Amino acid sequence: MNTKQQIESLREELRQHNYNYYILDDATISDYEFDIKLKELQALEEKHPEFFDANSPTQRVGGAVTKNFKTTVHDSRMYSLDNSYSKEDLLDWETRIKKMVDGDVNYMCELKYDGASMSLTYENGKLLRAVTRGDGVQGDEVTANIKTINTVPLQLKGDFPERFDIRGEIVLPIEGFLKMNAERIENEEEPYKNPRNTASGSLKLQDSSEVAKRPLECLLYSIVGNNLNLTSQYEGLEKARAWGFKVPKEAKLVKSIDEVLEYVDYWDKNRHNLPYEIDGVVVKVNNLYQQDELGFTAKAPRWAMAYKFKAEQVSTRLNEITYQVGRTGAITPVANLEPVELAGTTVKRASLHNADQIEKLDIRVGDEVFVEKGGEIIPKIISVDLTKRPADSIPTSYIASCPECGTELVRLEGEAKHYCPNYIACPPQVVGRIQHYISRKAMDIDGLGGETVALLVKEGLIYNYSDLYELTVEQVIPLERMAEKSAVNLVNGIKASKQIPFERVLFALGIRYVGETVAKKLARHYKSIDALMYASLLDLVTVDEIGERIAQSVVEFFSSEENKLIIERLKGFGVQLEISAEKLANQTDKLKGLSIVVSGVFETISRNELKKLIEDNGGKVSSSISSKTSYLVAGDKMGPSKRTKAEKLNIQILTELDFLSKLK
Ligand code: AMP
Ligand code: ZN
Asked: Which of 303, 443, 570, 586 minimizes the number of CB atoms within 10 Å of its CB?
């Protein structure tokens, strides 16, 4: 055996031992023997750097230091999950599903591991990169840290696809967490709060050898990619297991919502016997073809549902109610509480939402209140313990004027929240609007953060977002924590935002109720800010999916002289205030007024491309067949009931080629 073969064979052997120990939990050699072999391999690799392999078992000890984690765009987006809390929620979900898919639906029940989500990309069986969820579209690349986690295979076994992503959760098992804390207490260091935060904090440590010391695990739950040859979630999990991933064996395939509920009940009672924390169960439609039919909402897959366990509760004292002013002027009352431990974190504040909520709870300063924490970060106040109410307690009266600028508050009919109408000069509104303008999903201005915006406003350098474009490096340098380089970056970042397409600019303007989706619709329909600016209320409500509330808000926005001036300025600076010619060229009205259902698998075009094509040509994509459907574009493997329904309603069925040539 030559040296290269010797190295290879040691690597292979160690990999297998790793797998036996960490994945199968069934060691076949002692730790001591394992160490000897690892040292042997290390020595050989050191002597022969020409055989270096970034995925060798020796690389698990870490060592690489990352100063800045690279932002990386996910190949396919990492969605969130919709939540349910009761049997009714699940039954409603099932009803929605059954309207959209054909045939029986089976469900995969999985535990909802409470840690940090992670997307691992494998190419030719080797770990290529590991990226955090981030905002779902892009995250931070933390590969060096992830490699130190023993349950992450660096080299896959068996018959794996050439390239795919696999998603999972990085968790810190409770035993390991307690051990880490015992050590910290020994060293007179502050103990960590909970396993979940410690796990996600670990991923961003700069020194990977520090990460290697932490007993993290990676539990996998989903494979994504093209041409994977999978037909069900169940099969995906089985295969992932065979390739060497740790897929918890508690996952279970069931046939009904009743069985789902049995699973939920069982794990709600038994969750404390698991080695790691879970905060619920995730239910997924098992059949991947049905999953494909169901697709995604803007936030989450329609084919999956999280079932959250009942939250933990504690009681504490309400010390004060304060009021926050948001960027749209909306007022949010906040309960300031006597700090209390709840589900692993210290709770000091809770949202009270609005005046109605305060009235409903009849909550008063000095009350003892019950606080609950579900999955969300902000805890909720559930009720007041009336038995403990002091005799001299005074009912809460809601504020009448803005805590920031003193303007009298208004409350529009049918709205829950009070607003500060001082649009132009109320400080948190002024700052908040600019912060929204520069945010990632809006103008995504590199080198400029929310705090700097607040500072720029405070220093009187800007009053609204159009002022950003006149900032100079000289003006910015004297600001706190600014150096020449960061000032240059800031100014360049602002300049670069002039390339951001119209639909995002429209979102960035911060018109109330105009979110990302609405902005897209309006941009597509009106094509330029000028056209939108002169649209009447009546005209606006004729646009698909634009209701009166949105229309009203748009009209109001553009009726302000101040806003008109700002828009003129943006125009002058070269911000994109109309759809680019290129985009316009791809848009037609050929399918205007048509409602089209797309079903099945296509050959020359992906389903998403097909949908985009329909929308770009003015058509509407709809998910289920009704008498209003204009066409059904049918691909391969379309469900039989869709076809029957279309035939019954006399709806024209087109093949993908029919459709594409029709469009031409
Ligand atoms: P949420 O963060 O509440 O929107 O829930 C979505 C997150 O649940 C995902 O990003 C995953 O990180 C996590 N998760 C935990 N276990 C699972 C599972 N078995 N399947 C899917 N997602 C899971
Ligand atoms: Zn105000």
From this structure: 586
